[in-house]
Structures are given as C-alpha cells and as structure tokens.
Specification:
Helix content: over 70%
Shape: flat
Number of strands: 0
Largest sheet: none
Length: 181
C-alpha cells in the first residue's frame, strides 16, 4: 500500500501530471467558450454574413495548415530530444531560427496567394475584407511558438496563451468543425 501511495504522490508532483492538468484546462476552455460565442456570432452577422465569414475562415484554415507544415510534430520532437542533452544550446538555437525562418517564408507566400486570390476572383467587398483581415491571423500563426513550449514541456505557458487568445478572438476548434459541416 505504501508503494502505491508513494507512486501516486510522485506522479501527482511530476511534470507529466502538471502538463496534463494544463492541457485538460485548455480542452475545457476550447469546449465551453465556443458554446457561448457561436450563437452570439451567428445572431450578429446573420445568415449571409456568417456564410461569407465561414468561407473566409475556411480559406484561412487551409493557409494556416500550410504555414504549420508539420512543424508542430517534427520541431517539437527535435526540441524535446535536444532538451535531454546537456550541450545542445547551439543546436536548439539553429533549429529555432530555421523553423521561424521557414514559417516566415510560408507566411509571406500564403499572404501573397491570398491577395492574388482575392484580386482574381472579384469577390464582393465584404468577402474581400474578411479574407484580408483574416490574413493578419496568418502573421499570428507564424509567430506562434506552440511547438517550442511543447518540446520544452512547458504546457502552462502554452495553455495560458491559448486560453486567452481563443477567448479574445473567438477562434475555436468546435466552431471550425461546425462551420465545415
């Protein structure tokens, strides 16, 4: 019985348990806030406005996926592996710089694509404006460091930043799924 008690105590005080609790908190926020904001957004925009916004949001989602380009898995893994070694500060810095540089190039490319797409398709002004405004979110995607904090196993900061930003922006996984249906 003492072994079990010691195991539970060690686990409760471990980094794994702390990171798990922060990720559960983030998941709760990701579930509750959209339930509160989606009815408000649809009522304010109306059916036509919400449809226009949904089209722009879907295009933004595709461009955001291009910017991410798997860095959330590959760079996270590399940072986690490098964090275990003692003398890897230089390699971590090089990895960080190359990921940020690559994401910056992808962001500029996606913004240019978006501008050309709007120019070629002759959308109405509201559709064009919403797509251009959402392009500002691509800059946010570029500088987002989720991969770094996950690799360093610092979920507290990652969760807090995501909770605040999703609470402010109204961009949530559930509303994305509802809009895509």
């Amino acid at each position: 019985m003492d072994k079990l008690k010691n195991f539970v105590t060690r686990f409760a005080n471990s980094k794994v348990a702390e990171n798990g609790m922060w990720m559960y908190g983030l998941q709760i926020v990701n579930t509750v806030i959209p339930l509160l904001t989606l009815p408000f957004i649809t009522r304010i925009l109306g059916s036509e406005g919400f449809g226009i916004f949904s089209i722009s949001l879907n295009i933004f989602g595709y461009l955001q996926t291009i910017i991410e380009y798997g860095f959330g898995m590959s760079a996270t893994r590399e940072i986690a592996l490098l964090a275990k070694d003692e003398d890897t500060n230089n390699r971590q810095n090089r990895l960080f710089t190359s990921v940020v540089f690559s994401r910056s190039i992808l962001t500029v490319t996606c913004i240019l694509f978006s501008v050309v797409y709007v120019a070629l398709h002759k959308f109405n002004s509201l559709q064009s404006l919403s797509l251009i405004v959402l392009d500002l979110g691509l800059l946010g995607s570029c500088v987002q460091m989720n991969w770094l904090y996950q690799g360093l196993q610092e979920m507290k900061y990652l969760s807090l930043v995501n909770m605040v930003s999703r609470g402010i922006s109204g961009k949530h996984p559930i509303t994305d799924r509802l809009e895509n249906q």
